[in-house]
């Protein structure tokens, strides 16, 4: 921006940036603010519409990431407990192992790992039930005697 029009536009552009800076500055983790600070410095050094847009986008992204981190931090313990409950039920884990798993930090990574394990165990349980029902229906159709249900435990020593 140059001349009188540019000088009049700078205060008008800085007001929205101040609000975004206030939102982003309330961060508990400032390490994610480096791109926003760089873009803001570029706008302060050389006020232009392009630098304004870059600073606005970076500040909004930083505020969005911080909001997401706060929401994840609130929901992660509850979700981790739910997934751990599914894991314990599906795998039949003893109480000592449940207590040991419950001591893991309830961050986003642990919650994702518990979710994946819970989904795998649920899928395994559903597939096993479907396979057992299909086997039972096939044996009835062929007139063969129905054998006992297959064991859930894996056989060891086959390699």
Structure, described:
With 159 residues, the protein is mainly alpha-helical. It is elongated, with a radius of gyration of 28 Å. Mean pLDDT is 79; it is low at 1-5. It is 76% helix and 0% strand. It has helices at 3-25, 34-45, 49-91, 95-102, 108-142.
Percent of residues in helical segments?
Answer: over 70%
The averaged pLDDT comes out at 79
Helix segment tally: 5
Low-confidence stretches: 1-5
Structural class by secondary-structure content? mainly alpha
> What's the total number of strands?
0
SSE arrangement, N to C? HHHHH
Identify the overall geometry. elongated
Strand percentage lies at under 5%
Short précis:
This protein is mostly helical.
Search tags:
159 residues, mainly alpha, 5 helices, elongated
List the helices and strands and how they pair.
Layout: H1 3-25, H2 34-45, H3 49-91, H4 95-102, H5 108-142
